[in-house]
Write a structure and sequence with these properties.
By secondary structure, this protein is α+β, with helices and mostly antiparallel strands. The chain has helices at about 10-20, 40-45, 65-75, 85-100, 110-120, 125-145, 165-175, 185-195, 200-205; strands at about 1-5, 25-30, 55, 60-65. The chain folds into two domains: about 1-80, 3-Layer(aba) Sandwich (Glutaredoxin); about 85-205, Glutathione S-transferase Yfyf (Class Pi), Chain A, domain 2 (Up-down Bundle). The protein is about 50% helix and about 5% strand. A four-stranded mixed sheet has the order 2-1-3-4, with helices on one face. Helix 1 (about 10-20) runs antiparallel to helix 7 (about 165-175), helix 4 (about 85-100) runs parallel beside helix 7 (about 165-175) and helix 7 (about 165-175) crosses helix 8 (about 185-195).
Length: about 220
């Protein structure tokens, strides 16, 4: 199995967590986003969206989009499970994950930040303000969903680690990039603190990856 990754990529962070939880160690290939390596022809053949992560199975099957990869890994390596069994609980977990991966993350990825800077001439503080705003919008929604539900337990869905927790860990890492404080969102912060005690989460953190700086 091959994983195309970059240390700072939040979407790849999700996949690294799942791989760690499942006990899978892929061969890792760096796709340096600031250098534009994702737009080179060889990688564009792997993922036409020119985005990471991408995962190539031993039989040559190419997988992309982090949530699709997470569910694939859960279906092919079912222990430990990353989705609850009950349909309503599964829907809730997917919804929390999608608040992060579908509604928030696409607004702050490198290609969007680059477009803001190059096409609209928004300076670095302006781009930072953009990212901070969308993170706070998401964090407010997540706090409301998590704090107001009896389904929330030690983690997002009871006491089982799910793809919702995986995405929440990525949201927290992204918040730090854009100087969004978790303190006003105590339920989010509590769950993030809990999952980061788990080795599979801690080892997958962007700052623990090759090429990462000491701080961001």
């Amino acid at each position: 199995m091959k994983l195309f990754s970059f240390w700072r990529s939040l979407a790849t962070y999700r996949v690294r967590i799942a791989l760690n939880l499942k006990g899978i160690t892929p061969e890792v290939f760096e796709v340096n986003l600031p250098q534009g390596k994702q737009r080179e022809a060889d990688f564009a053949k792997i993922n036409p969206m020119m985005a990471i992560p991408a995962l190539i199975e031993d039989d040559g099957t190419v997988l992309f989009e982090s949530l699709a990869i997470l569910e694939y890994l859960d279906e092919t390596h079912p222990n430990p499970p990353l989705l609850p069994k009950a349909p309503k609980a599964r829907a809730r977990v997917r919804a929390i994950a999608q608040i992060i991966a579908a509604d928030t993350h696409p607004l702050i990825v490198p290609r969007v930040r680059e477009f803001l800077a190059h096409e609209y001439k928004i300076d670095e503080p302006g781009v930072l303000k953009w990212g901070n705003h969308w993170h706070n919008v998401s964090l407010k929604a997540l706090e409301t969903v998590l704090a107001g539900s009896r389904e929330t337990g030690r983690y997002c869905q009871g006491d089982q680690v799910t793809i919702a927790d995986i995405c929440l860990a990525g949201q927290a890492a992204g918040a730090s990039y854009f100087k969004a404080d978790l303190a006003p969102f105590p339920t989010v912060k509590r769950i993030v603190d809990e999952v980061m005690k788990i080795d599979a989460f801690a080892r997958a953190h962007p700052l623990k990856q090759p090429g990462a700086p000491a701080t961001v």
